[in-house]
Specification:
The protein has about 90 residues and is an all-alpha fold. The chain has one domain. About 65% of the residues lie in helices and about 0% in strands. It contains 3 helices and no strands. Helix 1 runs antiparallel to helix 3. The longest helix has 28 residues. The radius of gyration is 17 Å and the shape is elongated. It starts with 10 loop residues before the first helix and ends in a 6-residue tail after the last helix.
Length: about 90
């Protein structure tokens, strides 16, 4: 133990980072749905929309919902991380 207090995560920064990550991952999966490569199921796309995987509707709706999901998930992660910081002591 070095005696330093655990660092706290910035909730907004982690939320935006997670939102950008889920946005980018959704976009990559949508592009993958356009390409006839391998036996991909595109289940990740279906988490955020019921539209046909390769449609522009799936792109627009899915990107919005994945962005919202990333914001919520990132904020919750940072909040819980900061909440449990005392367990390191």
């Amino acid at each position: 133990m070095t005696g330093t207090s655990p660092q706290r995560l910035g909730v907004v920064r982690v939320a935006i980072t997670a939102a950008a990550t889920t946005f980018a991952f959704y976009l990559l999966c949508w592009i993958g749905a356009l390409l006839p490569i391998g036996p991909a199921t595109h289940m990740y796309l279906q988490l955020f929309t019921n539209a046909e995987a390769a449609s522009t509707t799936a792109l627009a709706v899915g990107l919005c919902w994945s962005l919202a999901f990333g914001l919520i998930a990132g904020a919750l992660f940072a909040l819980f991380y900061n909440l449990f910081a005392g367990l390191d002591r």
